[in-house]
Structure formats: C-alpha cells, structure tokens
Amino acid sequence: MSRKPFLAGNWKMYKISSEAESFAKEFKSLVSDVKDRDILICASFTLLPVLAKEFNGTNIMLGAQNMYFEKEGAFTGEVSPLQLIDAGAKYVILGHSERRHIFGETDELINKKVKAALQYNLLPILCVGELLEEREAGKTEAVVKTQVVEGFKGLSKDEALKVTIAYEPVWAIGTGKTATPEDADSVHSFIRKVLSEIYDKDTSEKIRIQYGGSVKPENIDSLMAKPNIDGALVGGASLKADSFTRIVKFN
Ligand code: PEP
Predict the structure, then answer these.
(1) DSSP letters along 9-26, please?
(2) Is the pLDDT of residue 176 over 90?
(3) 136 counts as catalytic
(4) What's the gap between Cα 76 and its chain centre?
(5) Active site residue 168
(6) Is the minimum distance from the CB of 220 to ligand 1 under 6 angstroms?
(7) Architecture of domain 6-248
(8) Residue 238 alpha carbon, nearest atom of ligand 1
(9) CA separation for the pair 96, 38 (Å, rounded)
(10) Distance of CA 30 to the CA centre of its chain
(11) pLDDT at position 203 over 80
(12) In sequence order, what DSSP letters do the residues of 150-163 get, joined into one string?
C-alpha cells in the first residue's frame, strides 16, 4: 500500500502577517517543483487570509490548529469549522498535546471536534501521543489506543479515511528529543493495528500516520524510510522556509 507522503508544518503561536507573507513568498518558490507529496502549513487564525492569498494556485495547502465544534453561536473567543473554511483552511489539527495538556482538552471534546470538522469538509489531523511518565511506565500503547479509539468514536469508514493521525510523543515535542525511527515506526504499526480492529485492514492501510516531535532536516530521511511513517507534523523546523523545504524534500 503506498500512501502519499504528507509533510505538515505547525507554526503554533508564531509569526505576524508580514512574517507569514515573506515566508510564503520564499517557500512557494522553493517547493514549486515538489510532486507526489502533500504539503500543508497550519497557522494561527489571524494568518490564514494572507497565507490563503499567497498559496492560492500553488501546491501548498492551508490548515488551522484548533476549532470549536459548533457552526456558530454565543461562544466568545472560539472559531468554527465554517469560519475556517471561509478563511481558506482545508485541514485542522485537533487534539494537539498542547491543547490536551495546557488547555485540558479531553478525548470526548476532541471527538466532537473531529466530527464537526468532517461535517463541514475540513480534514482533521488527530494528534495522539504519550507523556514521558506514561512511556516510562510502559503505558504508551494503552494511552495511544485510548486516544485513537475515542478520537474515531462514531466515525464511519468513509469518514475515518478522511482523517490523518499524527503520532507525537509529548516528551519529544519542542525538546530536541526524537523517538528513534524504530520506536516511532513500532507505535505507528500499533496504531494501524488499532485502526484495523475498529474498521478493517484495508482501511487501516489507507489512513496516513505522521510522526511529530523534534523533526528536523537532520532526522527526516531516516524517519521517512520507515514503512509505517507516512509524513511528519513539524513544529519549530517549519518556521523557516529553508529548513521546512529540506523536510518536504526528504530523500
Ligand atoms: C508540533 O508542534 O506538533 C511539534 C512536533 O513540534 P516540534 O517539531 O517543534 O517538536
């Protein structure tokens, strides 16, 4: 089963419009020759309009990093799936570890967001991953299984096929520590087994699983060489056009 490589940048709460615009101008020319790979930038809500304008007609897709699950209403400070689509987003990251651990998002809330995104044709990137103490206690598989099962709860097979999973061990995010390609691949393969139990083997083989956690130009090639690693969700190294280009152009 060949899955199209999917390289996504998560800018977190970085950049103002002028910085986003100059990144976009440089990046789109650097990656214009890239074929057969999906490229995505997930940026703050305020940056979506300027990026949508710059990426229009290019091979770079746009995404957001969070949303609320209602279409509209009295939810001060929240952003709806409809508003994200309107701003040019095609994807939305949901359940990022910073949302889970800083803002207390639960599996139940994340599942509501996944369903709402799909309802409005926004494609979710569902993030899962264990804390360091969970890994050290041998609980990685149990934690990741719960996050996957709860995140996909109530999704039909057709809906599940629209979801990308990002496996991001929390201890590797922004720390400079990366899971070894072997460790990451083994968790990815476990996630695929969980998906095959929820759906079937064919469906589990089609869903893309990105790795995230201190991905850099120096380690992308060895990660992407693994059979179950279908792409990367990249934080820090996606903020500079040259480093993210090297990641997109992995060997
Ligand atoms: C992330 O933001 O999802 C991430 C993995 O960050 P970093 O690449 O900086 O570790």
Answers:
(1) EE-TT---HHHHHHHHHH
(2) no
(3) no
(4) 26
(5) yes
(6) no
(7) Alpha-Beta Barrel (3.20)
(8) 8
(9) 20
(10) 22
(11) yes
(12) HHTTT--HHHHTT-
Interval 3-34: pLDDT, tens: 999 999 999 999 999 999 999 999 999 999 99
For residues 22 and 69, give the distance between their C-alpha atoms in angstroms, rounded to a whole number: 32
Domain residue limits, the chain: 6-248
Residue found by looking up tokens 């409005």 in the block: 120
**Distance, CA 3 to ligand 1 centroid (Å)?**
22
CB neighbourhood size of 225 (10 A): 12
Q: Give burial (CB, 10 Å; 0-12/13-18/19+) of 90.
A: middle
Could you give the angle at which helices 17-30 and 48-55 cross, rounded to 10 degrees? 20
Q: Is the pTM of this model over 0.70?
A: yes
Question: How many Å apart are CA 226 and CA 181, to the nearest integer?
Answer: 7
Quick one: which H or E segment has residue 126?
A: strand 123-128
List, in sequence order, every residue forming a beta bridge with 234; answer none if it has no partner: 9
Task: Give bridge partners of residue 128 from the DSSP assignment.
Answer: 167
Atom of ligand 1 nearest to the CA of 10: 2
Supply the residue whose CA is at minimum distance from atom 6 of ligand 1.
Answer: 235
- Residues whose CB is less than 8 angstroms from the CB of residue 145 and which lie 6 or more positions away in sequence, other chains included: 190, 194
Predicted confidence (pLDDT) per residue in 54-103, tens digit: 999 999 999 999 999 999 999 999 999 999 999 999 999 999 999 999 99
Q: How far apart are CA 170 and CA 113, in angstroms?
A: 21
Residues 129, 97: contact at Cβ < 8 Å?
A: yes
Which structure tokens are listed for 12? 């977190």
